[in-house]
Predict the structure.
Amino acid sequence: LLTVAALLPAAWEKQLVDLNVSALSDEQIRWADYVFLGGMNIHRSSFREIVDRCHSLGVQVVAGGPLATTEHRDLPEVDYFVLNEAEVTLPQFLEDLKAGRPRRVYSSDRFPALSETPAPLWNLLNQDAYSNLSLQYSRGCPFDCEFCSIAVLNGSKVRTKSAAQFLGELDGLYSAGWRSAVFIVDDNFIGNKAKLKRELLPALIRWQSDHRYPFTLTIEVSIDLSDDEELIELLVDAGVQHVFVGIETVNEASLQECGKTQNRRRDTLSSVRRLQSSGLIVSGGFIIGFDNDPEDIFEIQSSFIEASGMPVAMVGLLNAPTGTRLFERLRREGRLTSCMSGDNMDGSLNFTPRLDEHFLRSGYRQLVREIYSPRTYFRRLETFFRSYRPPKSKAFSINGTQLGAFFRSLWILGVVDEGRRYFWKLLFERLLFYPSSLVVAVTMAVYGYHFRKIAESI
């Protein structure tokens, strides 16, 4: 939405309300001439609630983003839709609005060059509400997994910003006073490896060094990163600390089923360990419910997660996003039952699976609760630290907010929580023998606590 705001006329007064961190008041709605609303599948009920509130207060809604783009036909209550990528459709809407003749739906099949994308308006953001901020370098993914909506929304051709454009956005963050984690939200940051190696990463390494590494970076990548030692080294040198990898499953038949070609015919465990030993913290996405999943899929997934030492394992039941190849296949087979909820941890499915649905749901709940139980999770952290090699020390800064979070973590995890004995054991081992990994240890312990609370609510 900060990028959308930058595409709006400069003379317009703007407010950002992020419902992840704040509430939307009636006063704010009345203040607005229009409410520009974006969201994903998981926000569907909140999305509709906001539209109803706006209409009750006499304010029109302009909607866009992934949910609106894929499901606008099911949202008749919205006044105007600006779909697909805003660089193309938003100027059309603004021109018609100025002329007093706006259409209800604006859409396009054009994927614009990202040179058309302005820098986000950071001044609209309350930085104190966030532990990390987001930037984008590229859109699109060269792969086309059956269950994934990236190709539908952003295309299969990878489009990137120039190095100068991306570094300009980093300059904007830096000038705004941000000194913490940055999440580069590209669905596959390494979609164009040649350009990364040739242009962006060398420039990013120089920028980080010149600014004394003010940002630690998180990216999403495909598992084939592990095959490219040069690229791994460049990423680590650029300050990338954390990578999220779509592993999905280690069952070969299920990988073949969903078209996850980049994961097939490889030793996935060795790939993960190669990344960890290079100084990258690896988180993984996992899916259960493929047609070819055997009945012991829960044990298979659990065994791999434990052996990998991967602290954060995002395990979800398979769902079919609207417009994906999976959605269309299941519709042809008469197996679709609803739109997906968008919550990969609520235990819901929107189709009839091959395995018994009750069996899948109960096995899923048991798996997630087990992998985040204190004993299992901290044992997995021990495995992780046997593979993980922290990169050479860089001048990462620690601000007051982060320091306060550290001491709150000591109280909650070290005194209040039931897993406190495992926490202190981990902490003392890191402090005595591997002090360079202490911050990572505390961070991973916090992640485990967070996901355990979610698992307990499923």
Q: What stands out?
A: The chain is about 45% helix and 10% strand.
